[in-house]
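# step 3/5: fold
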Amino acid sequence: MTSKYADVAVAAPVEVFAVSAAFREDTHPEKVNLSVGAYRTEEGNPWVLPVVQSVESKMAADTTLNHEYLPILGLPEFRNASLKLLLGEGNPAIVENRVVGVQALGGTGAIRLSAEFFKNIGKAETVLVSKPTWGNHMGVYRASGYTDVREYRYWDAETRSLNIEGMVEDLKAAPENAVVILHAVAHNPTGVDPTHDQWKQIADACEEKKLNVLMDIAYQGFATGDLEADAWAPRYFVSRGFEFVSAQSYSKNFGLYNERIGNLALVCNTTDAMKRCSSQLELIVRKIWSNPPNHGARIVGTVLNDPSLFNEWQNSVRVMASRIKEMRQQLYNKLKALGTPGTWEHIITQIGMFSFTGLNPSQVDFLVKNYHIYLIKQGRINMCGLNHGNLDYVAKAIHEAVVTIPSDQA
């Protein structure tokens, strides 16, 4: 029997999931997975935050909860708390009722919602993403009909730092009203963030070209352990009078990866504009997922609105951020002790879950084939995949990869 789908092309696999699948199939006793962006404990296991377990237990025992539809824009107590977490209690945009939150299916859903919104209201034909950026940014916007997707300079491979001059120059060369995707904190994949002064230069360029700003903030609190510090960029843009959107994710800082819980915040300059945009967002949601799920939103909303639970959650966020910082320092120390060729200071100056190591694809292949250490081709590693049990092994492997295959032999 034949199938009418027999001529359907086989799509290329999603790299990070393909790498993780290869890791799972590997039987080597010292294998290490440094690819997928998820927090791991010192024992290499996923961590269900204690506060999440506590809230879920109470939810399970609450006989008043039901499975009725949520409002199209999502659970109000979750959405409102998310806005306060992002912008700060008493932020003028909140006080003046000119910002709306829309519960989305994770950060990815929030980004897709932003793409559909900009497309539907006819405000942009071009989208700009950093070079490099999170692998799904381009795909999500292209799926919404954007054919003009451009990259702006970001990573300077020679200095392993931010190319602020190139970035600003590219933003100023963009078409007016283009969408620009900015990483609010803990840039993925590089871990390199602008300084406050550099953010001001970026804001100037966005203002000059009237760019539609999307701030992707997937790591608030998780990056430095400080919720306020990690939200500096969106709060600064509000203070400058920008109208912009921000995609929030609770996958990392709550460990709710498979609950797909996110929020899209839209800041306007007037209440009337916010209401107009809100009505459009509601129609878009209705056509995509119709109504959002309750479970993850209920967990996050409960924690963010309860001072005691909020403090407990903050402590867990600090624990995760602290472990990541320790792994950065330990890996740097071991590479220095081994005398590994090249400069490795970027490992400790970068922040957040990921480090853009500077390893080239040939060196990555060397690690996979000879040491069973799995990472994606661009050399990005998840620092959470490191622990005191594998640090020496990974450092030795990186050293051997760099010595065996120098960077100029990529």
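# step 4/5: annotate
The mean pLDDT is 95.
# step 5/5: archive (pending)
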